[in-house]
Task: inverse folding
């Protein structure tokens, strides 16, 4: 399901007024300036993270490798992931897992709202 449709369904479920929905979308607008557009048919890895107690133990790498392996076993030929352009630890992890940069998106509204200059989309063949 596309994110926009999922949001609309969530707003309907919550029975939000048109004013509440409009307010939510206006708060989301800066974030949308740097949303990566993933390639059609790509296995997309999203929202990778580990608790701080597990940081530096290789857990994130194992998780991403397992998810990438699942994509490969399901017949996908391309995996993609996105992270903040200033998230050096994540970018280093993805590079270790053979991901390479595809595109970088930056916008001042995004940086003011999120605190990061933008997003980077990375990909690798499976």
Result:
């Amino acid at each position: 399901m596309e994110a926009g449709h999922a949001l609309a369904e969530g707003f309907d479920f919550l029975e939000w007024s048109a004013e509440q929905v409009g307010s939510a979308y206006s708060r989301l607008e800066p974030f949308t300036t740097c949303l990566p557009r993933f390639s059609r048919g790509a296995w997309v890895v999203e929202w990778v993270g580990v608790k701080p107690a597990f940081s530096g133990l290789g857990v994130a790498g194992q998780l991403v490798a397992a998810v990438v392996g699942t994509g490969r076993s399901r017949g996908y030929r391309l995996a993609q992931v996105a992270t903040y352009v200033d998230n050096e630890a994540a970018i280093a992890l993805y590079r270790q897992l053979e991901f390479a940069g595809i595109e970088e998106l930056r916008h001042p509204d995004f940086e003011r709202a999120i605190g990061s200059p933008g997003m980077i989309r990375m990909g690798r063949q499976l």
In short: The chain has two domains: 1-32, 36-125. The chain has a mean pLDDT of 93. The longest strand covers residues 118-125.
